[in-house]
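Hello,

Following up on my earlier ticket. Below are the two sequence lines again, exactly as submitted.
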Amino acid sequence: MLSSHVAVIDYGMGNLHSVAKALEHVGARSVEVTSDPEKIMAADRVVLPGVGAIRDCVSELRQLGLDHIVRKVAAEKPLLGVCVGMQMLLEHSEENGGVDGLGLFPGNVNFFGNDLHEGDERLKVPHMGWNQVKQTIDHPLWHRIDQDARFYFVHSYYAVPGKQTQLAGRCHYGVDVAAALAQDNVFATQFHPEKSHTNGLQLLQNFLAWDGRW
Amino acid sequence: MPLAKRIIPCLDVDNGRVVKGVKFENIRDAGDPVEVARRYNEQGADEITFLDITASHQERDTTLHTVERMASQVFIPLTVGGGVRTVADIRNLLNAGADKVSINTAAVFNPEFVGEAADRFGSQCIVVAIDAKRVSLPGETPRWEIFTHGGRKPTGLDAVAWAKKMEDLGAGEILLTSMDQDGMKSGFDLGVTRAISDTLHIPVIASGGVGNLQHLADGVLEGGADAVLAASIFHFGEYTVAQAKAFMAERGIEMRL
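Thanks for your patience. The regenerated structure is below:
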């Protein structure tokens, strides 16, 4: 099953090297970092990464016409969104004065705010570091990963899903944060699996073995 | 609070080798950076920081190559600093596999560069390194200033105000090194750590002066740091990262074990 050809969508933002290297490390047959629609559609499965500001991510994606490709992929084959790559799949984000996403998942992306607290403790923003993820559904991508396992997060905005049934995992940082979303053959994580050591590599390996059903 | 405090081993790298000196002198060789990073990764390090102290430009390619090798074997966040002066420097490091870059001297001489970098690449990958030194006399209200050139050149800039300015310009994290303590193994300067951590909304990494595990715990409990950075206690086998984490967890600090 681990004979996968993976396309990592390159829309000109940030460091895609990490995702590609991590996928190779866990046994992907080949990994192509590409913005070519044909190559993306030819892959067995697709990763939509994302770092930086969502405005730039969405506008680059649209400019390259890749928003349509992401929709097509989402209808046909396993798709993994990571960090801003997850946030872009929702309807709207508060970041950069308000940005519309692709709307594959109902819901919004909100700012943690400058006055985030946990009891008496003032919390720093970005939410940066290793937090525990509570798996809220049984899903093939959680296979062999412990409940409350830690993953690496770095973000100042967090997703609030419109449909609770699409929540796959959550963590807590002053507020409840959607750590993962799932619908049909789409899975998306707020954390960075490619930077989350053993747990993250396990999730990527699970993605390579996933047929899109659950 | 489920978010764990972080332990970050720091690799000072000179021409492709990990080195460690006291106050930038008496340099000792501590191995191949990729091997060292792999060891810390296996021990449970939460991130790796790689500071390129290479003086000459020709050797920058060695650095990029080392970062590339490290990023394809170590799957935890990697921060790279040292000589980062331009947007192109940042792009090269990120493309080589760094997750964050640390800007130090360039921020002092050109603060707008921090804003430009954050706007271009996102705050999450811009760390500003601050070298602070106590300038107040014993008995006076404590005051710290920013120093450059390995702690030799004063700038007259107040460290707390400077850190705040870096946050306002878009820094995502502050790497705070006490130049009085660096290499002394007598613990962090908890005063400046606390002052900056309490003032800022972004995470603060305490650095400079760790000699034992209690110092790491103090950085979090007394200094209010979100992460603690150390080099020599790990390089020369005094402690493993796993021992440090167990020690801190026993003192009630949330850790990723």
